[in-house]
Specification:
The complex is a heterodimer of chains A (about 250) and B (about 375). With about 250 residues, chain A is of the alpha/beta class. Chain A contains nine helices and ten strands. In chain B, helix 3 links the parallel strand 3 and strand 4. In chain B, helix 10 packs across helix 12. The chains are: A alpha/beta (about 250), B alpha/beta (about 375).
């Protein structure tokens, strides 16, 4: 069984199609990155994959369960099987980090408060934020907020984590720390990562496999190991992206 | 295993073999849902066994050979059990945990860091608490006075440089605070006019003085109730809206962008709103006065007082100074309400919650200051006869 399987997926807003007839799959334990230029629909695709938006056509299967046609309790059941980290962290500003991580445990488990505290501390420890458990989101840096958001996404020990641009806006050291955290979680906990990113350094260091989207053709234009794509792709768009070559207009 | 599901066989079974030895057998899937039913009972039984003083050399043997799947919650459970043994200075052995789970467990060493010591809460004395509250009030007052100074200075500057005022923002704020408030101000003023006249007429009937109810209500509305009702509604609607709007801009660093661009946030954000408050408060008050007196006239007509009697009585009772006094007061109220809303917005901290706190604070501060200004105005009126 696949962790995620997208079949003939078409997404968009209203009548405007962003991407069409996408077919790709993600294996368990894989770090899978969706990349492409700004505005090509990466984040929208991610939101369609984890069920926040309904696609215009096609199916998304998460651990074999069709999320595109699930509603009510069935949809909620599927949604507890994965975690999501939003681009800006989206931590709840009125709660400290410990309570942010505990929130979903309180809703979905019958554990006692002390037990949830312990599990939440374990999650914060995994992302290196244990000393900051009592801090409010507004009291920590952007990079720390993103790490805390990953800890919250892991609250129910999901097998799949969706991350929306985890490295965007971070300095190289913090970005490298976050990459290390993702690799550790993947190797030690076997978590599958589906990540939206266009940070090349991060992509080369963590990705097992990538797909590259193109906003003009509204399709996947490359798939595979990012280093191989960088060195071997004959598609000028892929070559330009992976080698950071300026556009003709800019030249 | 997912939410709401529990396994048929317990994933963990604790057996007390004798006072010095216990075994914990783990099997199947140990995840956050499966552990919900067994975690607390097992820890309670373990604590009871550890508290038993029949043996001083206790050891817990964990049999992990039958574990099929172990995730973060399962590791957390093992850490909790192990920590209880450590605290009791008792032994803990787990010889057969699969190698693939060892790095998971090692990540959290030393596990004591996951169990912080409870913080001692120092209860502050009444004197310290009162002192802190008084200091906070003093600081707030200083900020309010400083802000009032800034607003006054920039208002004067704006009058001298009218082309520099952001009239688009002013019109927008005036429409939101004034035009959009007409229905609610009208409704509340009408109901106040009816209720006040009706309640007063019940008492005045006993003295045969129903004819005087209308003029008295008119006097009260012009001098006090009209400006007060309007100001409180402005505080609830516009002051909170100004605080939330500027507060959100503060959170998003938009105010910082103005400062770093060499622009005064007071002139840019506050002056258009304060000018709007100064303009709309008297207009809304006059509107509220007229609606409330009309409501009173309708009510008194129902009580058999002819409209001409109501009209003549009101003309006799209410002088032009009464109307002007109310309008002047409303002008002050409008200034206070809009300024406080902007101040609270500028004082907003970080995060969405801070915007909510600012909006609430704007309404509370506005109402307190309205009452304060009203009291000062009443005293001045009494001394000057205005």
């Amino acid at each position: 069984m696949l962790a995620l399987d997208a079949k003939n997926l078409t997404i968009g807003y209203g009548t405007r199609v962003l991407l069409q007839n996408l077919n790709f799959s993600v294996n368990f334990g894989e770090i899978f990155i969706i990349l492409g230029g700004s505005g090509c629909g990466k984040s929208s695709l991610l939101k369609n994959l984890f069920g926040l938006y309904r696609p215009m056509g096609g199916d998304v299967l998460i651990e074999g369960q069709d999320i595109t046609h699930a509603y009510g309790a069935e949809l909620q059941h599927i949604m507890t099987s994965f975690g999501v980290m939003y681009q800006e962290g989206a931590l709840f500003g009125s709660m400290n980090l410990l309570n942010n991580v505990k929130l979903f445990m309180e809703e979905y488990t019958s554990l006692e408060d002390a037990q949830m505290d312990l599990l939440a501390r374990c999650k914060l420890d995994l992302v290196g934020l244990l000393p900051f458990e009592t801090y409010m989101p507004s009291e920590i840096s952007g990079g720390m907020q993103k790490r805390a958001a990953i800890a919250r996404a892991m609250a129910l020990d999901p097998k799949i984590l969706f991350l929306d641009e985890p490295s965007a806006g971070l300095d190289p050291i913090t970005s490298a720390d976050l990459d290390r955290t993702i690799l550790d979680l993947s190797r030690n906990l076997g978590i599958t990562f589906v990540i939206v990113s266009h940070e090349l350094a991060s992509i080369y260091s963590i990705a097992d496999r990538v797909i590259m989207l193109d906003g003009v053709t509204k399709s996947i234009i490359a798939e595979g190991d990012p280093k191989l794509l960088r060195d071997q792709s004959t598609d000028p768009r892929v070559h330009q992206f992976f080698n950071r070559i300026m556009s003709k207009e800019a030249v | 295993m997912n939410a709401g599901q529990t396994p048929q066989t317990p994933p963990a079974v604790l057996t007390i073999v004798d006072p010095s030895r216990a075994t914990l057998v783990l099997r199947g899937t140990l995840n956050i849902y499966a552990l919900g039913a067994v975690w607390s009972p097992i820890r309670a039984a373990q604590n009871a066994w550890l508290a038993n003083s029949a043996s001083t050399h206790k050891i817990l043997e964990v049999d992990a050979a039958q574990i099929e799947s172990l995730d973060g919650a399962g590791i957390g459970f093992l850490i909790d059990v192990q920590e209880a043994q450590l605290v009791a200075k008792a032994g803990f052995v787990m010889p057969n945990l699969a190698a693939r789970y060892q790095p998971l467990l090692k990540q959290f060493e030393p596990i004591t860091s996951l169990f912080p010591q409870p913080q001692v809460v120092h209860v502050q004395s009444f004197i310290v608490t009162t002192g802190k509250a008084a200091y906070s009030l003093w600081q707030d007052t200083v900020q309010l006075i400083t802000f009032a100074g800034h607003v006054l200075a920039d208002l004067v500057w704006s009058l001298r440089h009218p082309r520099q005022v952001r009239w688009g923002d002013f019109i927008n704020a005036a429409v939101q605070a004034g035009l959009a408030a007409l229905p609610i101000v009208g409704l509340v003023a009408f109901l106040i006019g009816v209720i006040l006249s009706f309640q007063s007429a019940i008492g005045m009937q006993k003295f045969g003085a129903v004819t005087f109810v209308g003029p008295l209500v008119a006097l009260g509305v012009f001098r006090e109730l009209g400006p007060l009702i309007t100001a409180i509604l402005l505080a609830g609607r516009s002051s909170a809206a100004f605080a939330a709007e500027i507060g959100t801009m503060t959170v998003n660093s938009e105010v910082d962008a103005l400062v770093s661009g060499g622009l005064s946030p007071v002139r840019f954000l506050v002056i258009p709103r304060v000018l709007a408050g100064i303009l709309v408060a008297p207009i809304l008050t006059l509107y509220a006065d007229i609606v409330a007196i009309f409501a009173s006239a309708v009510t008194m007509t129902a009580y058999g007082v002819p409209f001409i009697n109501f009209y003549n009585g009101t003309l006799t009772m209410v002088a032009t100074e009464d109307i002007l006094s109310g309008l002047l007061k409303s002008l002050l109220f409008g200034t206070v309400v809009s300024s406080v809303g902007c101040l609270r917005g500028m004082q907003t901290g970080n995060g969405a919650a801070a915007v909510g706190i600012s909006a609430t604070s704007a309404v509370v501060s506005s109402i307190v200051l309205i009452v304060l200004v009203d009291g000062v105005f009443a005293y001045i009126s009494y001394r000057t006869g205005f």
